[in-house]
Amino acid sequence: MTAAHAGVLTVRGLAAGYGPQRVLRDLSLAVPRGAVACLLGPNGAGKTTLLRTVVGAIGAARGSIRYAGRDGGGDIELGGRPPADIVALGVALVPQHRMVFPSLSVRDNLLAGASQRRDRQGIGADLQRMLVRYPALAERQRQRAGTLSGGEQQMLAIARALMSRPALLLMDEPSQGLAPRRVQELSAWIRELAGEGMGILLAEQNVAFASAVADRSYLLQDGKALRLDRGDAGGQDARAAVAGWWEAGAGLPVSAPDAREGG
């Protein structure tokens, strides 16, 4: 594996859940640097639980969560660390339903994403970079975030996460509730970020969107992650499971899955 595609996140044998209930059981996966890995599965499969465990909001019962750091040369165990420390290390989450601060301005929402940083000059430069990158936010930077459209709020949630300068970006169902045009824009943003070297772990139910952006895909089933884009029997079984889930009424207005080869 080349340096550009070395794993920024490696999860091995992870078990986690809520109290005595184990949602994840012996889950393993990897996210290469500069690539998009996608988690597929119906509600309750454990997608959000995995993302929340990586960022420290849920404690792991066992297993390891290894992170390579911003420079890619580290081997940092994230398990047991508080969320604020994990953000400071360069891991950011775009939560489901966007969860912007509705009463704050767009500008103040962006600055909230840099709350763990102390480099004021760098924060100012990144703020301007976000406003250039997302012109709609620049036009509305004094506007309250709660008055933005759903697509604009998703844009803001992504930009807010980027203000922490992450090497690993986690996104929980970012296409949910977006118009088709906004979904296309979101696909382009995600591929652009991966092209800049960021590792992205994406949880989704929209199979068509996921297959359009993902370099590798996993199906969460029975608390484990099954690799979809492998050419062996395990990959074939996982793809068959996705097709069965989709055909059984996943409620997705999308075409059947088309898993891509992953690096």
Would you kindly provide a brief summary of this structure?
With 263 residues, the protein is α/β, with parallel strands linked by helices.
Give an overview of the whole structure.
The chain contains 9 helices and 10 strands. A hairpin with an 8-residue loop joins strand 4 and strand 5 (76-77). By secondary structure, it is α/β, with parallel strands linked by helices. The chain starts with 6 loop residues before the first strand and ends in a 16-residue tail after the last helix. It has helices spanning 47-54, 83-89, 106-112, 120-133, 135-139, 150-162, 180-195, 207-213, 233-247, and strands at 7-18, 21-32, 36-40, 60-67, 76-77, 91-94, 168-172, 199-204, 216-221, 224-227. It has a 6-stranded mixed β-sheet, sandwiched between helices. Strands 2-1-4-5 form a 4-stranded antiparallel β-sheet, with helices on one face. Keywords: Amino-acid transport, ATP-binding, Nucleotide-binding, Transport.
Q: Which strand order spans the largest sheet, edge to edge or round the barrel? A: 6-7-8-3-9-10
Topology, number of strands: 10
Kindly give the count of domains. Answer: 2
Which geometry do the CA atoms define?
globular
CATH superfamily of the largest domain: P-loop containing nucleotide triphosphate hydrolases
Radius of gyration: 18 Å
CATH topology of the largest domain: Rossmann fold
What level of helicity do the residues show? 25-40%
Secondary-structure element sequence? EEEHEEHEHHHHEHEHEEH
What's the CATH class label of the largest domain?
Alpha Beta
